[in-house]
Amino acid sequence: MPALVTGRLRLRPCSLDDVDPLHALCTRPEIRRFLFDDRPITRCEAQALIEGSTASFQRHGYGLWLYSDAASIAGFAGFLDAGESKPPRLVFATRPDLWGQGYATEAAAAVLRYAHASLRLERVAADADEPNAASIAVLEKLGMQRNGREVTEGRPLLLFELRYPRPEPV
Length: 170
Hints:
globular, 34% helix, 170 residues, 8 strands, alpha+beta
């Protein structure tokens, strides 16, 4: 499970040691509003998220990477396994006191580069709640294209996809 490095960030795969800080991040009202449909998640759900990420790293080479500052976990970026024949789904979150500083874009760009360069993925997907203008802006900065809209449990979602160019035959 590789660490990823950007100009400002060092992203590392999450581990079970991260359950409590990840749970603290994910239960912040500003984070859970869009990421968990405003539903508080339990510590067990945070642990299951990490366990799923660890299994996904072993099976597919991707999962969730965390990045920190001196205080605590600053955010995460990575992919959730969407199932057979579906592209992995990009997810990201940044601690609210760090919003507007480009961390989400930088972290998500790092995992997208890894997906293409190391895993040779042909495409990845993402979705964002329609009212979540900040996440939509991040997805658009990353070059993801809108490819649909759906309503899930009464919440309108915008669907995005990024297709990587196929390498030229030699």
